[in-house]
Amino acid sequence: MIKHLLSAADLDAPTATLIHDIAAEMATVAGREVKKLPTLRGRTVVNLFYEDSTRTRTSFEVAAKRLSADVVNFSAKGSSVEKGESLKDTAWTLQAMGADAVVIRHPASGAPNRLVNWVHGSVLNAGDGTHEHPTQALLDTYTMRSRLGTVAGLNVAIVGDVLHSRVARSNALLLHTLGAKVTLVGPPTLVPPVFETLTPDVRVGYDIDAVLPEADVVMMLRVQKERMNAAFFPSWHEYSRRYGLDAARVRRLPDHAIVMHPGPMNRGVEIAPDVADSPRSTIVEQVANGVSVRMACLYLLLGGRS
Asked: Which residues are catalytic?
């Protein structure tokens, strides 16, 4: 079993499927009167977040607490990081405090890979720069399996700001591993042809209307204006007109197709409010499934080690 979860590429199909199977069992805990398992009692999980987060940090915290772990939430704001402390020194501090696992979100791509050199416990990548977000890919593929019965053979369209999206990268890698077909769609400035080399069979397209009739899953991505230092499209209105998912475009989808979004959403930009709130949407399910999947990851990484 893997010790760290740094990339979706760390996961082969049996391991990803095992995580999904355990997540399905963990999901039953949410329905109990006492939402606790003793699995990680006495273990310490540190959430080390250098970027703001709501869903990911909170779901990791809930996941660890439901497994009875002690949880330490570390935010770069208000910490010694603001005084210039390096990631290495922060890691050594956490190691001295006995962290069994460190969940890290960092604006620099590759930061989790560096962290493994400085802590003895497991490291889980909760998003590093524009690089990867493997637990998001796990919860997204788990949601697909829950809704559609399988991941293998699905046609998945990932639409929007692929260039800056760690979610797109991790999903493309894991979906390929699990046997799905991926098409990346968006403006040429946000989906450069180099992404065709991400996996052997990923496709790149620039016309959302052309891919919708064959799509089993449409995953809309947030336009990450905070990572943009140039004009990637003429205007927000033009982007929404060309690539936003509205009710008219949803009617082009097969009847069974689902709509996904990793959040947070720009309602009215990449996705219309009525689509986000429709029965096809899995957005709320993704949040709930995130807790179960992260419980499964912590269980596998920590549950079997003394």
From this structure: 55-56, 83, 105, 133
What does the alpha-carbon distance between residue 3 and residue 189 come to, in Å, rounded to a whole number?
Answer: 37
pTM value is 0.94
- Secondary structure of the chain in the HEC alphabet? CCCCECCHHHCCHHHHHHHHHHHHHHHHHHHCCCCCCCCCCCCEEEEEECCCCCHHHHHHHHHHHHCCCEEEEEECCCCHHHHCCCHHHHHHHHHHCCCCEEEEEECCCCHHHHHCCCCCCEEEEEEECCCECHHHHHHHHHHHHHHHCCCCCCEEEEECCCCCCHHHHHHHHHHHHCCCEEEEECCCCCCCHHHHHCCCCCEEECCHHHHHHHCCEEEECCCCHHHCCCCCCCCHHHHHHHHCECHHHHCCCCCCCEEECCCCCCECCCECHHHHCCCCECHHHHHHHHHHHHHHHHHHHHCCCC
Residues 180 and 102 in one domain: no
**Is 85's pLDDT higher than 80?**
no
CA distance 71 to 283: 26
Check the CA dihedral 46-64-125-18 and report its sign. positive
Taken as a whole, the chain contains a residue count of 306
Is 69 part of a structural domain of the chain?
A: yes
* Closest of 215, 157, 153 to residue 182, by C-alpha: 157
Q: What is the pLDDT of residues 216-246, one digit of tens each?
A: 999 999 887 655 455 667 677 888 999 999 9
Provide mean pLDDT across the span 179-187: 96
What is d(CA 178, CA 117) in angstroms, rounded to the nearest whole number? 30
Residue 79's pLDDT band (cuts 50, 70, 90): low
Residue 113 within any structural domain of the chain: yes
- What's 78's domain CATH number? 3.40.50.1370
Both tokens assigned to 193: 């042809």
- What is the pLDDT confidence band of residue 200, given thresholds at 50, 70 and 90? confident
